[in-house]
Specification:
heterodimer, A: 233 residues, mainly alpha, 2 domains, 8 helices, elongated, B: 112 residues, alpha+beta, Arc Repressor Mutant, subunit A, three-stranded antiparallel sheet, 4 helices
C-alpha cells in the first residue's frame, strides 16, 4: 500500500465511530485531505508533516462529528431506528431459539421421567447454556466481520438498549404467562407435581433473566470500550 | 484574523459568489477564499462541507461526482437557479451592513 493510503486509512478509522458521516462525506473529506497533502508536499514538506498539517486544518474527529451531526440529523436517526429494529429482530430470534432449546430440555426431562424439579433445573441449565453460546458466538464473530465491527462502533448502543428493554419486558411477560399456564395445568396435573416444577422453574427463571440482562449490558460495554481502543491506536 | 462568528456568517455569501464564477470542489473553494482574503479568512476546512451540504438541501447548490484533473473522484458544486438568484439578496444585505459601518467610521461607502 502507498504511504499516503496508509495514513488515510488510519485517519478513516479514527473517524469511523462517528454516526454522522455518510460514506459520501468520508469520500469527500478524503479527497480534500489528498489535495491538501499534495499541496503541502509541493511546498517542500515531508509526507508525514504534510499529512499532519492537512489533518489538523481539516478539523478534529470531534469537530467534524459535531458539525456534520447538525446537517445529517435525519440520516443519524434513520440509522438509529434501523439499529433498534435490528436489535429487536435479533433479540426476538434469540428468544425463540433459546426458548426452543429450553422446551427440548423440558420434553426430554419429561420423557426420561426425571423428577419435575430436576426437569426444571435441566431446562434452566439448557437456557443458560444457550444464552452463553449466543453471546460467545457474537463475540467471536465480531473479530471477523466488518458489518459487526461497524455495529459495535455505531449501532450497539441503540440495538442493545432496545434488546435489553425487550428482555426486561419479556421478563415481566414470561412471569405472567408462567403463572397463567400453571393455573391451567393445575386442572389436569396433580398440584404437588406442578408445585415442585414451578418452584424450581420460577427460581431458575428469576435468577437467569436478570443475569442475561446484566451479561448483555456488561458485554456491550466491554466490547464498545475495546472497539474504541482499537480505533484510537 | 476574522472572528469565528463572522466567518460562519460570511460562509454562505462567499460560497455563492465563488460558485457564481463556475463550478468548483471543496478544497479549491477554500483555497480561492483564502487567497482572495489574503489569508484573513481561514476556515476550519472540514466545516465547509456541512455548509455546502446544507446549501444543497436548501436548493441553492447542485452537486455531482466527477473525475477531477487528479484522476480521482471529486464532488463538484455549482449554483442552482435559486442559488444564482439569491446572490443579489446577499449582496444587498452585506452592502447595507458595510455602508452603515462605513458611515459611522467616516469612510467612503460602497456604491454598488
Amino acid at each position: 500500500m502507498h504511504d499516503v493510503d496508509k495514513l488515510i486509512a488510519n485517519w478513516k478509522s479514527s473517524i469511523a465511530t462517528s454516526e454522522a458521516l455518510r460514506n459520501d462525506d468520508l469520500d469527500e473529506l478524503e479527497e480534500h485531505l489528498r489535495c491538501a497533502v499534495e499541496r503541502y508536499q509541493q511546498k517542500g514538506l515531508s509526507l508525514e508533516d504534510a499529512f499532519f498539517l492537512a489533518e489538523r486544518k481539516l478539523g478534529s474527529p470531534g469537530q467534524l462529528d459535531g458539525e456534520f451531526s447538525k446537517t445529517n440529523i435525519d440520516y443519524i436517526w434513520t440509522q438509529r431506528i434501523a439499529w433498534m429494529l435490528i436489535g429487536f429482530v435479533l433479540m426476538s430470534v434469540a428468544f425463540r431459539m433459546v426458548g426452543f432449546v429450553g422446551r427440548i430440555a423440558f420434553w426430554t426431562g419429561m420423557s426420561v421421567s426425571l423428577s419435575p424439579a430436576l426437569t426444571a433445573v435441566a431446562q434452566n441449565a439448557a437456557i443458560a447454556i444457550a444464552w452463553s453460546g449466543l453471546l460467545y458466538l457474537l463475540i467471536r464473530a465480531r473479530h471477523n466481520d466488518r458489518g459487526l465491527r461497524r455495529f459495535f462502533r455505531q449501532g450497539s448502543r441503540w440495538s442493545l438498549t432496545t434488546a435489553v428493554l425487550i428482555v426486561a419486558a419479556m421478563f415481566l411477560l414470561i412471569e405472567a404467562t408462567n403463572m397463567a399456564s400453571q393455573v391451567v395445568m393445575s386442572r389436569t396435573v396433580s398440584v404437588s407435581t406442578i408445585g415442585e416444577y414451578a418452584l424450581a422453574n420460577v427460581i431458575g427463571g428469576t435468577v437467569l433473566q436478570p443475569l442475561v440482562i446484566i451479561a448483555s449490558l456488561v458485554t456491550a460495554i466491554l466490547l464498545r470500550r475495546q472497539s474504541r481502543c482499537e480505533t484510537s491506536t | 484574523m476574522i472572528s469565528k462568528e463572522l466567518i460562519g456568517a460570511s460562509a454562505k455569501p462567499l460560497v455563492l459568489s465563488v460558485l457564481a464564477q463556475g463550478e468548483d470542489y471543496g478544497y479549491s473553494i477554500i483555497q480561492r477564499v483564502r487567497q482572495l482574503s489574503e489569508d484573513q479568512i481561514e476556515w476550519t476546512e472540514g466545516m465547509l462541507y456541512p455548509v455546502l451540504h446544507r446549501m444543497e438541501k436548501e436548493g441553492l447548490l447542485v452537486s455531482s461526482w466527477q473525475v477531477g484533473d487528479s484522476g480521482r473522484k471529486r464532488k463538484y458544486y455549482r449554483l442552482s437557479k435559486t442559488g444564482a438568484k439569491s446572490i443579489a439578496r446577499e449582496q444587498a444585505q452585506w452592502i447595507a451592513v458595510h455602508n452603515t459601518l462605513a458611515k459611522l467610521w467616516g469612510m467612503k461607502p460602497c456604491t454598488t
